[in-house]
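PROTEIN DESIGN WORKSHEET
SECTION A - STRUCTURE
LENGTH: 306
TOKENS:
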């Protein structure tokens, strides 16, 4: 019993942290009685929103990448750059294709061959720009090297001989094919020819070989030539005509102007032949029967044959 005049101070419940205990099958689970409005409660919603935002911004990037994609085109027999540009709707025409694929085509845009892979699209342009930048850098370095050589002492410069190769001027004429190997020669006699002799020379080459105009001129005919098969006849500045026969495909048309070495078509075995080759003639008129020695003509213009 408590002493008189003194009251027992009731013990206060000192719960600095309120805990609810829930019994489940004899086990106790302690849960902090805190509000669910704190910063931690908002974390899942924030993560979801962040994920949605990233997904939304990623979609346009994928579309842009697809739009900038490159289309690869394999050259077929009878193709030439302007034809490919028209058929494939290339903005900028054949010049754009050539600029984007110069490293693959080479120095002459008319010299393409079946199977050559061409890139059509913006990515190809960027690739070309990269190569252009590389060439610019190389040229700049070469210029710096030249400048350094110019500032060298005079006695050193005079002691160093020039090693720059001399380039012979172009004669304006070239062979109709890369190979100079001639099969049947000019004026070989035989009953298989209506004139009694061979009116040109034959370059024995496989079907699909690039054929080139021997000099600048104007195409006077391009198409079927009877026993000659597919043929092209070109008039040149000196008044002579060159003829290319038995072609598998043509790259030029009548009335078109051509340059020295420009591709005019591909070799084949059309018309009256026993195998693929190029029948080549030089004529004084565009017609059969006005032939002159084609080998002598080419040699007179500085072209080595055989």
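SECTION B - SEQUENCE
RESIDUE ASSIGNMENT:
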């Amino acid at each position: 019993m408590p002493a008189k005049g003194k009251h027992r101070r009731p013990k206060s419940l000192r719960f600095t942290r309120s805990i609810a205990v829930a019994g489940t099958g004899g086990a106790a689970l302690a849960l902090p009685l805190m509000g669910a409005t704190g910063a931690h409660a908002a974390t899942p919603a924030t993560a979801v929103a962040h994920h949605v935002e990233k997904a939304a911004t990623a979609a346009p990037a994928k579309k842009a990448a697809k739009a900038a994609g490159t289309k690869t085109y394999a050259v077929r027999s009878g193709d030439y750059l302007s034809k490919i540009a028209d058929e494939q709707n290339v903005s900028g025409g054949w010049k754009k294709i050539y600029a984007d694929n110069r490293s693959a085509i080479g120095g002459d845009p008319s010299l393409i061959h079946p199977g050559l892979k061409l890139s059509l699209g913006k990515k190809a342009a960027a690739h070309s720009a990269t190569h252009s930048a590389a060439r610019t850098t190389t040229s700049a370095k070469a210029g710096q090297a030249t400048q350094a050589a110019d500032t060298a002492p005079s006695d050193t410069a005079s002691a160093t001989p020039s090693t720059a190769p001399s380039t012979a001027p172009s004669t304006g004429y070239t062979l109709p094919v890369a190979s100079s190997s001639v099969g049947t020669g000019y004026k070989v006699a035989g009953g298989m020819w209506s004139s009694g002799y061979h009116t040109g020379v034959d370059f024995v080459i496989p079907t699909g070989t690039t054929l080139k105009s021997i000099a600048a001129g104007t195409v006077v005919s391009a198409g079927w030539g009877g026993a000659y098969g597919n043929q092209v006849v070109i008039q040149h500045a000196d008044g002579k005509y060159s003829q290319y026969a038995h072609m598998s495909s043509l790259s030029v048309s009548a009335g078109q102007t051509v340059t020295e070495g420009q591709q005019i078509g591909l070799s084949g075995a059309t018309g009256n032949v026993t195998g693929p080759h190029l029948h080549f003639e030089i004529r004084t008129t565009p017609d059969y029967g006005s032939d002159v020695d084609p080998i002598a003509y080419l040699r007179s213009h500085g072209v080595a044959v055989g």
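SECTION C - NOTES
The radius of gyration is 41 Å.
The helical segments are 43-67, 81-87, 93-100, 102-105, 122-150, 154-159, 294-300.
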